[in-house]
Amino acid sequence: MKYDLIVIGGGAAGFFTAINVAENNPNLSIAILERGKEVLSKVRVSGGGRCNVTHAEFIPNELSKNYPRGEKELKGPFHTFMTGDTMEWFDRRGVALKIEEDGRIFPVSDSSATIIDCFLSETKRLGITVLTNHSVKNFEANNEGWNVETNQGNFTTKKLMIATGSNPKIWKLLNTLGHNTIHPVPSLFTFNIKDPRIKELPGVVTNALVKVKNTKLSSEGPLLITHWGMSGPAILKLSAWGAIALNALHYDFEIKVNWLQHYTAQEILEELKELKNKNSKQHIFKYTQFELPKRLWQSLVLASGIKPDTRWADVNKMLLYTLSEQLTQGVFKVHGKSTFKEEFVTAGGITLKEVNFKTFESKRYKNLYFAGEVLNIDAITGGFNFQNAWTGAFIAAQAIASEFLTDSN
Q1: Residue 43 belongs to what H/E stretch?
Q2: Which stretches of 58-183 are DSSP H helices?
Q3: What DSSP line would sit under 8-25, residue for residue?
Q4: How far apart (Å, rounded) are the C-alpha atoms in residues 124 and 146?
Q5: What is the value of pTM for the model shown?
Q6: Do residues 355 and 362 lie in contact, with contact meaning Cβ atoms separated by under 8 Å?
Q7: Which residues of the chain have pLDDT under 50?
Q8: How high is the pLDDT of residue 57?
Q9: CA atoms of 395 and 405, how far apart (whole Å)
Q10: How confident is the model at residue 375, as a pLDDT?
Q11: What's the pLDDT score for residue 229?
Q12: Do 157 and 17 touch, CB atoms closer than 8 A?
């Protein structure tokens, strides 16, 4: 079977590429090859099933700062297609989006099915062929484009888009063609911690500053205590920026948590001394301080060696010092990681030096394009990984469609 364009990968980047190429040149024959039974499976589970489409950051250079790998390379592409363009793209197709307080952008329907239905209706309208259960065994360049071998037959295509996400099998095939890849390691994961201070606190959320001991890694923001340890944006950002370093530590390390963010132990010690003078008759355990969640405050008070019936007047300097340390420099041992919900992101992929980011075409092979997480690009949580997919796919689609139009003229 011959096609003008074959897209390997039935995910967000793959569909976005195919749709945008077809819109620019509706006479092209386009096929999407998906190895699984269903397409857009990652879109379905993203954002807890709501699909976090993108993030409300509208300045290209600021948006690029959310990518531990790919920041420099994405600055140019984001000037071509970014958040506002994504929102307009979906709006033109009848998908209403909303911006939440934390900047995340979701469909108004709060359902990823809205995004999936949009893609499927567009592929049907534009005559794009979607082939599921087509596992790619090999692809190689020929004089006119590419040969693609699958478990259900062979295809030829003038142009080939690889949008398979984190797929080691495809990376290996690219290696045989001479493309270099960075070995993938997990990103966006939570920390497994067994510690009596947080054992009874699942569900507690508070802003905190978290540092990995003996490294320069740090992150701040909402921290969520879970049944298995710690999660929330502060931890997830830390796991993204520290993906390679934490993998090298085999996910066995210590973190220092400042529950009061930027206050030092000395500053808090002075505050505690004032509380001792002002509230001498109050029980320390009973009345929460520093606007911390009550259960967290009580846990840290007990961890400092202060008994529940102790009044401020009766606490000595050593116990106050210990409490200030617990509040600002609590050390927790991390033993392992857990995947963040059903969303799995990896750091790793095709070396970025081998890609032309004006077109997302391979520098090694003409008519070979990449988009999404198949590249060594990944982001923190909040819709940024999808924005990378939309941007790369759109720019590649423009380049592909333009070449076909040039050839026809």
Answers
A1: helix 41-49
A2: 60-64, 71-80, 83-92, 112-126, 168-176
A3: E--SHHHHHHHHHHHHH-
A4: 25
A5: 0.91
A6: yes
A7: none
A8: 98
A9: 15
A10: 98
A11: 98
A12: no
The tens digit of pLDDT for each residue in 267-288 reads: 999 999 999 999 999 999 999 9
Q: What is the torsion angle, in degrees rounded to the nearest 10, for the CA atoms of residue 80, residue 83, residue 86 and residue 87?
A: -140
Q: How many residues does the chain have?
A: 409
pLDDT at 10: 97
- pLDDT, one tens digit per residue, over 292-312 is 999 999 999 999 999 999 999
3-state secondary structure of 160: strand
**Is the CB of residue 407 less than 8 Å from the CB of residue 367?**
no
DSSP structure string for 171-221: HHHHHHTT--EEEEEEESEEEE---TTTTT-TT-EEEEEEEETTSS-EEEE
Q: Which two tokens stand for residue 409?
A: 């003229």
Pick from 259, 253, 240: which is nearest to 340 by CA? 240
- What would the two tokens of residue 258 be? 């400042």
DSSP state of 372: G
Backbone φ and ψ for 205, nearest 5 degrees, come out as: -125, 135
Measured from the Cβ of residue 75, the count of other Cβ atoms closer than 10 Å reads 16
